[in-house]
């Protein structure tokens, strides 16, 4: 599925943007995804990964 992290499954958030006059319109927040060459089960592959997984070391980048 598009716009989801391949490791943790983090996806988009949907909520309401509320104006001063209390008018509500839909707004979407997307995760910060990066395309990275990483080792997945011993094979180098391109994956879409959120920056939280990159920082925490959950993803092993390929050399």
Write the layout of secondary structure elements.
Layout: E1 13-18, E2 24-29, E3 33-40, E4 43-50, H1 51-56
Antiparallel strand pairs: 1-2, 3-4
Q: Main attributes?
A:
63 residues; 10% helix; 1 helix
Task: Describe the model.
With 63 residues, this protein is mostly beta strands. The chain is built from 1 helix and 4 strands. The strands form 2 sheets. It has a two-stranded antiparallel ribbon with strand order 1-2. A hairpin with a 5-residue loop joins strand 1 (13-18) and strand 2 (24-29). The two termini are 27 Å apart. The model has no long low-confidence stretch (mean pLDDT 95).
Considering DSSP H and I runs of 4 or more, what fraction of the residues is helical?
Answer: under 10%
Mean pLDDT: 95
Give me the number of helical elements: 1
Class of secondary structure makeup? mainly beta
Main beta sheet, described? Answer: 2 strands, antiparallel
Low-confidence spans: pLDDT under 50, at least 5 residues? none
Overall 3D form: elongated
Strand-residue proportion: 35-45%
| Count of extended strands | 4
Rg, please? Answer: 16 Å
Assembly state (oligomeric): single chain
Q: CA-to-CA gap between the ends?
A: 27 Å
Strand order of the largest sheet: 1-2
Order of H and E elements:
EEEEH
């Amino acid at each position: 599925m598009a716009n989801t992290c391949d490791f943790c499954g983090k996806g988009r958030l949907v909520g309401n943007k509320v104006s001063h006059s209390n008018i509500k319109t839909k707004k979407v927040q997307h995760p910060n995804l990066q395309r990275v060459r990483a080792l997945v089960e011993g094979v180098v592959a391109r994956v879409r990964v959120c920056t939280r997984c990159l920082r925490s070391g959950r993803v092993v980048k390929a050399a």
